[in-house]
Amino acid sequence: MKIEERCGGFAIAARASFAVALAWIIFYLIYNQYNYFLSFLPVPQLLGLLAGVALGAYTRSLLVGYSASSLFLFNPGSPGEIPAYSGYVILLTLAVMGLLSYKRGPSDSAIEALLWRRPARATPVLATASLLSIYYFLDFKFAYNSLYLVNAGLAAVITSRNSETLGKAFASSLAASLGPVGLLCLSLYLAYMPLPPLKCGGLALPGRLVAYEEETSSTRLLTGGRRWRDRGLACSKPSIPVLNLGRRAIVWAYSIDPKGTALMLSKSLASRERALFLDLDSISPCEGPSGRVETVCLGDYPLVEVKAYLSSLAETAKQYHIVAVSSCRVRPRDIARELALIASHTTVVASLCLPEEDALIASSGPEGGGTLFSMLGDPLLTRTVLGKILGDNNEKIYYLFRKYKIYLFYPYCERRWAAATT
Predict the structure, then answer these.
(1) Fewest CB within a 10 Å sphere: which of 180, 330, 378, 419?
(2) In what helix (H) or strand (E) does residue 311 lie, and over which residues does it extend?
(3) Distance CA 386, CA 408 (A)
């Protein structure tokens, strides 16, 4: 499973809606066949209550709970008013869901996504209305059912706020025209929908953005959570990861492979411009990458001479778009002053093995600095640093580090931590 699939939750929503719809079909086939045995039991009402509370609690949504409950109260072969006691069942379902929401932190994952700032579109609503007209013309019994009409109307509202393309608009309209079944599918889709990416300028990083720090429903958090709404790394729709910096700054990168990280970043950030790569660990002469990246190896020089060389670059660094430094033998504080001088003329990437735990969010450079962080050689140090960045969710993020090729970076738009995959 890719991290985008884990993050988006669309597979979970699809499986859940398919399972509930299949259970509904099997139930009505059996119930209608043996109705004379079960006529004295409120079987649809009981199943509606159980399905609504269970699925609503799992998805952190009253809207999903309502749609699952109303599905089992809907009989397509019985046109007319809503069946007796069905309204009480729906109210009881919402009351139980409301109590759970109050206990776990008031929130609704589906309604939250519905209220995101997106324009309402008329095309999917008109398409849904056209399909309903066809059902009336063909004299389908379910088209006269009050519960069907209410749910189709709610589903049409969802489609109007969640149809960016023409194809998606017609697919959503087809789902909305299914009434309770369509409302369940669409509300489940909303419950797991990733956040829209933020917009800001800065340095474009390699890979794809998968999450950023936000307070939202726990169904959208990479690390989950017991509360219905919490703050953490929230899943984002894929986009370009951006370091929200000015044109010139120091980007501190920490990983188990500082040389590979430095080369990756310098090639990505420099594009077709000139770049200088300084390997502070390898002995000269050394082979560097092909293209417009020049390589200098300083592994056979003591730290004092390395610092003197870096200081001498301050005046000539302007000819390079990126100056990248990689090392496992130096700490950030050893070369911070020298790199700040270089950063006054160009962008600097400092890729090291060992971070300063009390200075993870670097601020060196004339316009502030950025930080990238991926798996370190020491698992305990990795967990410690993750704990300082993300608090109690460090174990879950550490698991994601081991399973997927992701890295954290700061600052994303509006001074947030974010995660991207390579």
Answers:
(1) 378
(2) helix 303-312
(3) 10
Contact in structure between 241 and 255 (CB atoms under 8 Å) = no
Dihedral over Cα of 300, 303, 308, 313: its sign: positive
pLDDT tens for each residue of 161-196: 887 777 788 888 888 888 888 898 888 888 888 888
| Amino acid found at 346 | T
Q: With contact defined as beta carbons under 8 Å apart, do 160 and 128 qualify? A: no
How many degrees, rounded to 5, is the angle at CA 384 between CA 380 and CA 388?
Answer: 170
CB atoms under 10 Å from CB of 36, counted, come to 7
Peptide bond into 285 cis (omega under 30): yes
CA atoms of 349 and 343, how far apart (whole Å): 9
Q: What are phi and psi of 411, to 5 degrees?
A: -95, 135
What are the counts of helices (DSSP H) followed by strands (DSSP E) for the chain?
Answer: 16, 12
Contacts with 410 (C-beta within 8 Å, 6 or more apart), sequence order:
360, 361, 370, 371, 416, 417, 418
Tell me if 258 sits within 8 A of 352, measured CB to CB.
yes
414 strand-pairing partners:
none
Contact 229, 106 (CB under 8 A): yes
* CA–CA dist 324, 266 (Å, integer): 6
Residue type, 271: S
**What's the one-letter identity of residue 116?**
W
